[in-house]
Amino acid sequence: MKLFKTPILMVDAIIHSQKKILLIKRNVEPFKNCWCLVGGKVRYGERIEDALKREVKEEVGLKVKVERFIGFFDDPKRDPRWHSISLAFEVKPLSKKVEIDKKEVLEARWFEVNRLPKKIGFDHKKIIKRWLELNE
Q1: Residue in 53, 55, 48, 50 with CA at minimum distance from that of residue 64
Q2: Is the pLDDT of residue 2 over 90?
Q3: Which CATH class is domain 8-134?
């Protein structure tokens, strides 16, 4: 039986509240010290929304409600480690207190959507841009 390479399935969350979105500064490569959306890999046997909620809880300690699907992002070069496909979602926090996972995250900060940092990792600028277009 021949094994085929397949893309890795990822999830990304636009966590928003009062015209601000939450970004994390990564503590790991790739894009260490860059601002990014909260997200990560979908585990084998895991539902997409469960993976999204788990990643948000692990990285920033928030429980969230999934509001809508933003889109899929499948550029094979979106992650320098491997070919990945991300499913991005808009989510609303159900709790207020952000508690970062210091192993993966240096800092978490709320940014006004019109004052985002210049250094954003992966293809997360594209994801944010698509989300903003959906909200026009």
Answers
A1: 53
A2: no
A3: alpha beta
- Over residues 72-112, the pLDDT tens digits come to 999 999 999 999 999 999 999 999 899 999 999 999 999 99
Residue 29 is a catalytic residue: no
pLDDT tens for each residue of 20-62: 999 999 999 999 999 999 999 999 999 999 999 999 999 999 9
Which residue is catalytic, options 46, 49, 58, 107? 107
Integer Cα distance of 70 and 122 in angstroms:
16
Measuring CA to CA, which residue among 64, 70, 75, 89 is closest to residue 13? 89
Burial state string for 1-40 with b = 16 or more CB within 10 A and e = fewer than 16? eeeeeeeebbbbbbbbeeeebbbbbbeeeebeebbbbbbb
pTM of the model: 0.94
**In the numeric block, which tokens belong to residue 78?**
């979106």
- Interior angle at CA 39, CA 108 and CA 135, nearest 5: 85
Pure H helices in the chain: 48-60, 124-134
* Closest by Cα among 73, 72, 62 to 15: 62
